[in-house]
């Protein structure tokens, strides 16, 4: 009788504990994506275009969420979400990337695993369908963190990644964008102040810092970040922005947060933006939201660094902070939240 | 009489103030250089070679110091010092750079001004005699921070930098080094652990992380950092290390410190090494030395990140910290200090 009672107690305790664990864990797994930030104004948007952007964000969010829902890792989730955005011609990454001044599509991507600070990145690749998967291959199948250009392409190819003709990345919309930007840029002037020369950008212009990114927190409380971009329209001279730079456009550390940035790359680099958020949390004990606001709304604004970021911590707290008109963004969590937004509140 | 007295008082006050300023300032201007770190063992060094390294470091130190001594900026000083090291075939930067697996010399460099967080960098350039000056041109003559490959070369050329035939960088010594490393590398195995796959390096091997760098504090209490490298011998796939990455191998911020790193690039990237030192000072209020030790002797050691760094703050405090056998290094300050060293104490 005593034995039966003990077994029953054990059963009860185990069940309650399992339920408690499940409910606790379910609050924790969270998927977040972004599709770029900038002067995204409702007045410049058609209802059809808005709908298409929302659908694009939702499907990336869903892809990442499904991974988490099956008990998959944050790392797998962010890669899955970013691949969907890379395939979507609406967003400036993979298919749909903007053109350089030479009429090419040069792609950058980075990924980082908060669990072990493993990181990988590629820059200036032109033949890899999913640059984010190339970044992951660099992280997992090489002793390196960053590879660029032809070398990175060779490595990706040797590691079985899907190679496409550079023409694959062509879209009519982006080609017209290059034409427009070429005309605009010829009118722009550099105001070379004592810090980096700054591009003067017209206030009301519908400019966007096209980048896509994802951060996630999985059921095991690991976090990861991924970012992918086609860079700036009409970019010259092999310019590299913040996206593929670890600690700058992309960072993940289970101690603090996982972050993917989108914005005017140069100030983000000079601010070492993503790592600064992490350090404000680790050393100054700011909350995730406070740290993100300090970097995006104070430091970057002071440096004329327009843009934003998405961030998550291992408790599943999420911050979506931007200092411009809008940021394509979405959050889906295991407690039922599913939010997609474009403009500021 | 009163007027004469007043003038005399003014003269006295001005003179005393100027002297006070000079004596105060003179304690402050300091030049620091490094020429790489690693398993640099006395047993592997000939007296002639040792003498040549010491002389190379001294002449770079002197070049930077002379700039500061004339009231020049920390930025000018670090560029001058690094140019001397780039011209010296003993060091792995500019002339004397190591070869990639394809038998090319691909050069990386970065520079940062602590006064205004302006930064510039180039990676994978093959025709610029002084990559550090190309990095400075990116900082001052473009709206960008980082440029790579052919684009960076075109930019440098358009901005009047000295262009050389890639053969200029060839040295017999480095070519033999490539041969040796090719043989060694074919014997190495990747142990792909859960973090980035790590190269196994023989304990007793005389391997060096060839990088050169400089930090300085000028008479106006501004600080700056510069780093230049040929990367890793036999590097493949367009691999980029920490040197040209802002916040990682190179960082400067008048609020905290200026830093140039040298070491096994990958862990330095994953640790966001230079910026981490800065954040430990800014947010955790560690001293320069404490912050450098925390990053180099604790965090990097934990990540198997062999190497070191040189650092300075606006008070002219200097830290030279490394977790390997030796680091080519030198310090010269306006209070008469002139130190060159190679091995650990």
Summary, kept brief:
Two copies of one chain form a homodimer. The first copy, chain A, is an alpha+beta fold. Chain A has nine helices and 16 strands.
* CATH level-3 fold name of chain A: Glutamine Phosphoribosylpyrophosphate, subunit 1, domain 1
CATH architecture of chain A: 4-Layer Sandwich
Radius of gyration of chain A (Å): 21 Å
Beta-strand proportion of chain A = 15-25%
What pattern of helices and strands is seen along the backbone of chain A? HEHHEEHEHHEEEEEEEEHHHEEEE
- CATH secondary-structure class of chain A: Alpha Beta
Structural class of chain A: alpha+beta
> Of all protein chain pairs, which has the greatest interface, and how many residues does each chain bring to it?
A-B, 57 and 58 residues
- Biggest beta sheet summary of chain A: 9 strands, mixed
How would the global form of chain A be characterised? globular
How many domains, in number, for the residues of chain A? 1
Instruction: Return residue spans of chain A where pLDDT drops below 50 for at least 5 consecutive residues.
Output: 1-25, 189-206
- Separate helix tally of chain A: 9
Q: How many strand units of chain A?
A: 16
Query: What is the oligomer described by this structure?
Result: homodimer
What is the overall pLDDT average of chain A? 88
Give structural notes.
The structure is a homodimer of 345-residue chains. With 345 residues, chain A is α+β, with helices and mostly antiparallel strands. The first copy, chain A, has a single domain, classed as Glutamine Phosphoribosylpyrophosphate, subunit 1, domain 1 (4-Layer Sandwich), CATH 3.60.20.30. In chain A, 39% of the residues lie in helices and 24% in strands. Chain A contains 9 helices and 16 strands. In chain A, strand 3 (118-125), helix 4 and strand 4 (146-148) form a beta-alpha-beta unit. In chain A, helix 2 (47-69) packs antiparallel against helix 3 and helix 3 runs antiparallel to helix 4 (131-141). Chain A is globular and about 45 Å long. At the A-B interface, strand 3, helix 4, strand 4, helix 5 and strand 6 of A face strand 3, helix 4, strand 4, helix 5 and strand 6 of B. Strand 10 (239-240) of chain A pairs antiparallel with strand 4 (146-148) of chain B, so a sheet runs across the interface.
């Amino acid at each position: 009788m005593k034995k039966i009672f003990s077994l029953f107690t054990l059963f009860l305790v185990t069940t309650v504990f399992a339920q408690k664990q499940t409910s606790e864990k379910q609050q924790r797994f969270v998927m977040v994506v972004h599709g770029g930030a900038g002067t995204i104004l409702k007045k410049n948007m058609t209802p059809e275009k808005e709908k298409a952007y929302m659908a694009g964000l939702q499907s990336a969010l869903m892809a990442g969420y499904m991974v988490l829902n099956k008990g998959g890792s944050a790392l797998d989730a962010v890669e899955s979400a970013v691949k969907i955005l890379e395939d979507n011609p609406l967003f400036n990454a993979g298919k749909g990337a903007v053109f350089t001044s030479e009429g090419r599509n040069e792609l950058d991507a980075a990924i980082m695993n908060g669990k072990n600070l493993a990181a990988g990145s590629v820059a200036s690749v032109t033949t890899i369908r999913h640059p984010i998967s190339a970044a992951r291959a660099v992280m997992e199948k090489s002793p390196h963190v960053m590879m660029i250009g032809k070398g990175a392409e060779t490595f990706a190819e040797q590691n079985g990644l899907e190679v496409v003709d550079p023409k694959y990345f062509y879209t009519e919309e982006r080609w017209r964008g290059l034409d427009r930007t070429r005309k605009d840029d010829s009118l722009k002037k550099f105001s070379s102040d004592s810090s980096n020369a700054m591009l003067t950008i017209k206030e009301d212009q519908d400019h966007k810092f096209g980048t896509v990114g994802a951060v996630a927190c999985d059921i095991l409380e690991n976090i990861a970040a991924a970012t992918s971009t086609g860079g700036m329209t009409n970019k010259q001279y092999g310019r590299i922005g913040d996206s593929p730079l670890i600690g700058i456009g992309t960072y993940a550390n289970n101690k603090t947060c996982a972050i993917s940035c989108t914005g005017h790359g140069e100030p983000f680099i000079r601010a070492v933006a993503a790592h600064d958020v992490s350090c404000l949390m680790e050393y100054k004990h700011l909350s995730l939201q406070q740290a993100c606001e300090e970097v995006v709304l104070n430091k970057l604004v002071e440096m004329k660094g327009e843009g934003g970021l998405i961030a998550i911590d291992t408790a599943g707290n999420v911050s979506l902070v931007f200092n411009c008109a809008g940021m394509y963004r979405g959050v889906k969590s295991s407690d039922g939240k599913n939010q997609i937004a474009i403009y500021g509140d």
